[in-house]
Amino acid sequence: HVQLVESGGGSVQAGGSRRLSCKVSGLTDAIDCLKWFRQAPGKEREGVAAIDRDGYISYADSVKGRFVLSEDNAKTTLYLQMNSLKTEDTAVYYCATAYWGQGTQVTVS
Q1: Per residue in 38-82, pLDDT tens?
Q2: Do 101 and 93 form a contact (C-beta atoms < 8 A)?
Q3: β partners of residue 80
Q4: What DSSP string describes 40-74?
Q5: CA geometry: angle at 29 spanning 68 and 70, to 5°?
């Protein structure tokens, strides 16, 4: 079992930055890939960024060049640095593997 707890959401003005964190605990050795998703009201859930066991990172085209995924050396916390935020980035952001966190709201105005 894996526990994921997101934090760092809030309100930010367009053009600003925000960093989300995802604390990972439990059976972390079993994790092949960690992902950030988001879901805006009335829209389908969207994959934002992912990192696999080998450290390969990928991004959705909608955030490429603006968002940066990273993790700490102990691989216990996943980060999503969000820069040049747009109103369309407003969503609940989730950290996920085979399990999901509770999500953290990001509102860009």
Answers
A1: 999 999 999 999 999 899 999 999 999 999 999 988 889 999 999
A2: no
A3: 20, 69
A4: -TTS--EEEEEEETT--EEE-TTTTTTEEEEE-TT
A5: 10
